[in-house]
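Standup notes
- DV: blocked on the single-chain target, sequence here:
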Amino acid sequence: MKITFQLNGTEKTVDVEPMSRLLDVLREECRLTGTKEGCGEGECGACSVFINGALANSCLVPVQQIVGADVTTIEGVRETAAGTRLVESFTEAHSAQCGFCTPGILLASLDLLRRNSDPDEAAIRHGISGNICRCTGYDMIVDGVHLAAERAAEEDGFTW
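- DV (later): unblocked, structure below
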């Protein structure tokens, strides 16, 4: 079945089985490997993407559900001012170690910051709670989100 959707701002058509997972289509057909498979059950957040602006676990989404949708992966986010701000802040705060969970956590952080541009620690921990990181213990991730929020607040007109 041919599926057409917007992928990181560009129209994309793929010929796939309609029940293929979006995660597999992104990695195998579209060659976008920033989206990871961790658990395959929607529990770890490594496969997070935005679908029509909403955070979603791509391992749970049959590709037929994205016909005509707007899908944004970490590759699309990192090209934006918000993505750059988050990556720089995470780097400075040493928020990522092995990096496997980082794309999903960056998307969850962006989702949070779009809804709450000045989150406290509890809000950040809640905002990233759908993501499992086995390396950092989360404190450095919280620091990275705080730093990104602080820097954005200092820049006049910055929007997430």
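- Follow-up: The chain has two domains: 2-74, 78-154.
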